[in-house]
Design brief:
Layout lengths: L8 H15 L9 H30 L6 E7 L18 H5 L5 E7 L5 H8 L5 H4 L15 H7 L3 E6 L16 E4 L3 H17 L4 E7 L26 H9 L6 H31 L6 E6 L24 E7 L9 E7 L3 H9 L18 H11 L2 H10 L4 H6 L8
Parallel strand pairs: 1-5, 1-6, 2-8, 3-4, 3-5
Antiparallel strand pairs: 2-7, 6-7
Helix pairs in contact: 1-2, 7-9
């Protein structure tokens, strides 16, 4: 095994033994004061050399080994504050609480935009929505922008993925760089395919990147498994997108009791996603991949849930539509149990992911801040840019079917 600066174990050991054999001499009884000083100086020098070699060797042993693989689960539309691991009073994420000692938790993460396309585009390019331009009016990522999947493909990775969200497609440019990518109707269909897919990836002998997007926390909410636990009546008050638009437009009744039911249905869906997280960890462990993989659970944006008189997302930038979770399990649960408190942004995900994998950054991301170095100033500045007149008008055009909503749409900037 190579040691620090290319020095092997045997070399370090030999240098140590030689140093002891040369310098460990008996002090002559008749030595003069000058000879004694010379001997002590010599001994101190050897001690410093050995300490330097030993310190470098210990640093080399302790330094983190890059993860071999990357698995990213995007729990579409998941708000951080509705997860009990983030402090929610309802028991929505017992698995993530029980395993919190294995994950690095980012406490304050902002999505770069309040809906799927621009947020995914930023997360997987390291560019802000104002830079890549994939937003209302241009719902695709131009192929000239290099994605994380393309960078990993060029580094020899096998990239594959699944999505329930149809926005992750060739038409939107969000799956550039993937060899295999499938859409699915339900999360359970993806989970059924994952064991064979992981076995195939492991058997290939290549490093791999797996991306999965599931929509259980998106209206109409997959809350059926835990509906009774969270006391949701029947199917919940908002079970279709048309109801969402009418509620936002003020043409559909949505009283406090209905609002409470809507939030309970969402919590039941989050509880199901906790089960998904448990199943994914179990699968990776069963295939002996868990401790060589950087495993990420996050979201692309949040959800209104009646805050600021809005349900759904995408028509404004209130904090509840931008706050998302970010839980990272490194190989052997390194850094597990730690919490990163400062505000950060998913736009910084790609630079960090490359660092975790030991893959060199491209020139345009060489100086880009990672997740632990993003600044607050850049967050609010780009939100202002994103909600420009063009985006505002595009959103109003989208709401033409509901004139009352079009009158009420306001694009508010979140400030930090």
């Amino acid at each position: 095994m190579p040691g620090p600066e290319g020095v092997g174990i045997s070399t370090v050991r030999g240098a140590t033994e030689e140093g002891i054999a040369t310098h460990h001499k008996k002090l002559p009884r008749s030595s003069s004061p000058s000879a004694i000083r010379h001997w002590l100086t010599d001994l101190a020098l050897v001690t410093l050399i050995l300490a330097a070699i030993g310190g470098a060797w210990l640093w080399w042993l302790a330094r983190p080994t890059p993860a071999r693989n990357l698995v990213v689960f995007v729990f579409d539309t998941l708000r951080a504050d509705r997860m009990s691991v983030y402090g929610h009073s309802a028991p929505t994420t017992p698995f993530f609480e029980q395993t919190s000692g294995e994950f690095l938790r980012f406490a304050d993460v902002k999505a770069p935009a309040p809906w799927t396309v621009p947020s995914h585009a930023s997360m997987f390019t390291g560019l802000w929505p104002a830079e890549h331009g994939a937003q209302w009016g241009k719902i695709y990522l131009d192929e000239r922008y290099v994605t994380l999947a393309e960078l990993l493909r060029d580094a020899g990775f096998y990239n594959f993925g699944y999505s329930v969200n149809l926005f992750l497609s060739e038409e939107t440019g969000l799956i550039q760089g993937f060899e295999d990518f499938e859409t699915a109707k339900r999360t359970r269909d993806i989970l059924a395919k994952l064991p064979a897919a992981l076995e195939k990836a492991a058997a290939s002998g290549r490093r791999f990147f797996l991306l999965v997007n599931v929509m259980d926390a998106h209206i109409p909410f997959n809350m059926h498994r835990y509906r009774k636990q969270f006391e949701v009546e029947k199917r919940g008050p908002v079970w279709a997108h048309s109801i969402k638009w009418r509620v936002n437009a003020g043409t559909e009744r949505f009283d406090d009791a209905m609002k409470q039911q809507h939030r309970a249905a969402y919590d039941a869906a989050v509880r199901y996603l906790d089960d998904v997280g448990r199943d994914v960890v179990r699968m990776l462990r069963d295939h002996e991949l868990l401790d060589e993989t950087a495993l990420v659970f996050t979201s692309d944006h949040g959800e209104g849930l009646g805050w600021h008189a809005e349900i759904g997302h995408s028509i404004s930038a209130w904090e509840e539509q931008l706050d998302v979770p970010l839980l990272v399990r490194f190989p052997h649960a390194r850094r597990g149990g730690l919490v990163f408190e400062p505000t950060t942004t998913l736009t910084a995900f790609t630079p960090s992911a490359l660092d975790w994998l030991g893959v060199p950054r491209p020139a345009h991301l060489r100086d880009a801040p990672g997740l632990e170095h993003a600044s607050r100033a850049s967050l609010s500045a780009d939100y202002r840019d994103y909600f420009s007149e063009v985006s505002r008008q595009s959103n109003m055009d989208l709401a033409e079917a509901y004139p009352e909503l079009a009158k009420r749409v306001t694009h508010l900037h979140i400030l930090y």
